[in-house]
Design goal:
mainly alpha
Length: 399
């Protein structure tokens, strides 16, 4: 009797574990239970079907096709098999960063650091992006320390010939890292004692490694504008523009109908957000034509970014205040700012100061009175741009 009784108890424990253990499905709807079971079954089949090498190959395939969700699924399966594999941990951390899952990225990267604390500068740079203030600085400085050590031990740093693609760390990498440090002092720690000096020091280090870096030059411009040195700031800003704007203009002239991919754009020109910052600084420097050119280029890439429409409206508003022929710029300002307000509501944006400023300018321009319920539909992008171009042409003829 002892044997059958033991078998029965064992079976009972398995059933109980199924109800209350890691795969507890109580409290879920029938549809949710089925979904969990299918996921567990798929996980088991994937682990049995693929080796780690094959799982990583599939991960790379999905990364190449920008299917980050599927890439994460296969990478996670590989991580389930080899949880201490640094290559897989780094890959998973990068995928989570791209997907905006900062908490999971943090867990994965900290695990990698625990296993190998003195290698892998990229892990520290990613953690610096996730954190803020002093914590971010600690990660950036640690990453820089590892990066500079690696760079100094490479053949090129020692005077031997070496191709950039063969180098683990380049001067551009180090320059970008110093820019990250400078940005912390320009934003999160701007009120700290000696923040200005430390910010400037970090930017100078960035320029020391890459003198023509658009990012570093632009950061120096931002720093100088914040220190109320607009003349010097404008000089650095124009140097930054000179390093990439002519190439963009040439590219647009040669293939006006061919739209470059996001990857091609970011590999040649500064990222979208960086170019928005460029436009802001140009407006501050009263370089309105250059600002407009950059902002209209950004609209070609994505015409649902509120800040771009807002900055176009702000630029036209400022020009209307300076010029005698102000009506054309007022009309354009109203058009752009109305679009910004509509997008704000459509996208459910949460930036009260921006919305307040848009309303304030429209009120001054008479935009709120002119804009009625019949105008609620978004005007097509092309018609808005045509209005601006026509206004500019009219002004030129009058001149």
């Amino acid at each position: 009797m002892g044997g059958p009784s033991k078998k029965k108890n064992s079976k009972s424990k398995r059933k109980q574990r199924g109800r209350t253990g890691a795969y507890d499905l109580s409290g879920l709807s029938a549809e949710e239970r089925m979904k969990v079971k299918m996921q567990n079954r798929a996980k088991k089949k994937t682990s049995e079907k693929y080796t780690v090498e094959q799982l990583l190959e599939k991960t790379e395939e999905y990364l190449d096709s920008f299917n980050l969700e599927m890439a994460q699924l296969f990478c996670q399966r590989a991580l389930d098999i080899e949880p201490d594999n640094l290559e897989i941990l780094d890959m998973m951390g990068n995928i989570c960063m791209e997907l905006g899952n900062a908490e999971l990225a943090k867990q994965v990267l900290l695990k990698a650091i625990e296993l190998s604390p003195d290698k892998g500068h990229a892990r520290y740079m990613c953690l610096g992006q996730i954190h803020c203030k002093e914590e971010a600085l600690q990660y950036f400085h640690k990453g820089l320390h590892i990066m500079i050590q690696a760079y100094q031990g490479q053949p090129q740093a020692l005077g031997a010939a070496s191709r950039p693609d063969e180098m683990e760390v380049t001067t551009k990498d180090i320059s970008t890292a110093f820019c990250s440090v400078a940005e912390i002092y320009l934003t999160d720690l701007c009120m700290e004692k000696e923040a200005g000096d430390k910010c400037k020091e970090a930017i100078e280090k960035a320029l020391e490694y890459t003198p023509s870096s658009p990012e570093a030059l632009q950061l120096m411009a931002s720093y100088l504008f914040s220190m109320e040195q607009p003349k010097e700031g404008r000089e650095y800003l124009l140097k930054s523009l000179a390093s990439w704007l002519p190439s963009m203009q040439k590219n647009e002239e040669q293939i006006p109908k061919q739209e470059p991919s996001d990857l091609e754009i970011e590999s040649v020109f500064p990222p979208y957000e960086s170019r928005i910052t460029t436009a802001k600084l140009l407006i501050e420097a009263e370089e309105f034509e250059l600002a407009t050119e950059i902002l209209e280029g950004l609209l070609e890439e994505d015409d649902e970014v509120i800040q771009v429409w807002y900055l176009l409206g702000w630029s036209c508003y400022l020009q209307a205040k300076e010029l005698d022929e102000e009506d054309a710029f007022k009309d354009s300002a109203r058009t752009y700012l109305r679009k910004a307000k509509k997008l704000y509501n459509k996208l459910k944006c949460d930036d009260p100061p921006l919305l307040e400023h848009v309303g304030q300018i429209l009120g001054e321009l008479g935009g709120e009175e002119v804009l009625g319920d019949s105008d609620a539909e978004d005007a097509p992008l092309e018609s808005i741009k045509d209005d601006f171009v026509q206004s500019s042409e009219d002004e030129a003829m009058e001149a």
